[in-house]
Design brief:
Layout: H1 16-34, E1 39-40, E2 46-48, H2 49-55, H3 61-66, E3 69-71, E4 77-80, H4 85-94, E5 103-112, E6 124-133, H5 137-154, E7 160-166, H6 173-185, H7 193-201, H8 212-217, H9 230-246, E8 251-252, E9 264-272, E10 280-286, H10 290-293, E11 301-307, H11 308-313, E12 325-329, H12 335-347, E13 352-354, H13 360-370, E14 374-378, H14 380-385, E15 388-392, E16 398-401, H15 403-411
Parallel strand pairs: 1-5, 7-8, 12-13, 12-14
Antiparallel strand pairs: 2-4, 3-4, 5-6, 6-11, 7-9, 9-10, 10-11, 14-15, 15-16
Bound molecules: adenosine-5'-triphosphate (ATP) and magnesium ion.
Length: about 400
Amino acid sequence: MAKKLQSIRGIHDGLPSEVSKWRKIEDVARKVFATHAVSEVRLPILEPTELFVRSVGEETDIVSKEMYAFEDQGGDNICLRPEGTAGAVRAYLQAGLTRAGAQRWFYMGPMFRRERPQKGRLRQFQQIGVEYFAVNGPVADAEMLAMAQCFLDTLGIEKVRLEINSLGCAACRPAYRETLVAYLNARAESLCATCNDRIEKNPMRVLDCKNESCQAQLTDAPEMVAHVCGDCETHFSGLKSGLDALGVRYEVNPRIVRGLDYYNRTAFEFVTDQLGAQGTVLAGGRYDGLVESLGGPATTAVGFAAGMERLAMLMPDGDKQGVDVVVVALGDGALPYSLQVASQLRATGVAVVHAGGGAAKKQFKFADREGALFVAVVGDDEVQQGVVALKNLATGEQQVCAIEQVVSLLKG
Ligand code: ATP
Ligand code: MG
């Protein structure tokens, strides 16, 4: 036997029971986002590698070690997108929308990161993301979070909590950074190698270290929320009172830092205890500096992304497409008419599978395996009269009826 090929490690197949959950997630997202007048965009999966180096940041795990980046046949450095925000900003600039007023976008699609695969941590995963451009002030942040909460509620996902933080801005972060670096340097010997590496490069990430012995050293570490400037303070309190007014529950978690470099002010995560270490299901924040750093004018922006596979893990099992009717043809003479019966029923929106003709017993067995609700039996008599014998498999009841009648019987 030839050797069986396997999918790449950390890359899953979407089989019917999972895909039905994804579709539900997508449907709910479309409906909920529409009530906030958010429009769908479909952006490229391949982007120039430099886009992520310049936006996500060279010191992040994503850019330093997780990108599927390569040189193509023409010598261009391209990569499979690891996240959606950078591409959205590129598209926003490329389309010349910076003077077109507020833009509210959402997208859904695959992202790629070469991480260590675990439950809820894949190398190809799907995100649903939302990005608002040229939308200012804490009202936008609060409303976006209310929208995200409504999205999760409508999916029936409970047991998630919202945590928020302020990451400061270009005015207040540098001074805080110095305070933090001094604090960390004083404890460097007791921190892990990764933390030591981050003290100079990305000190706020040290606060996020999953290592318990590191956390024990950090209990009284200075926190950004306590060092924000007046404008950031006003923004943060505006966000909190907006959430209060909207009835969105939250906790302030001063340790939320976000893995990507481009965030400022608002940062948030919806987290659950049900997925082990992969507890963040939806995360995002404000990134007012990113449009400018990618060559555009200073433009405010806020967004989030949710991992579809993690959301699906919190939902009850989905079903594959159900079968309403199996059409059974008794004898070759009935076959052409039975095919027409199947296609006429489908035209009314009924889910139909043809049993393929042949021995009656085999066809009824097939209908059972398909889990059909009804069997429409077609023999010579039915052909002549232009009817079907419809059998309800649950009750065993059978009646002869015209095709137009079948639909009302199915509903009844
Ligand atoms: P984590 O802390 O779990 O690594 P992250 O901070 O890297 O998440 P983001 O880049 O903010 O995550 O992505 C937003 C969401 O996308 C996450 O909250 C998560 O639900 C999902 N996600 C991120 N990476 C993966 C992955 N490798 N596999 C599956 N889902 C993921
Ligand atoms: Mg990550």
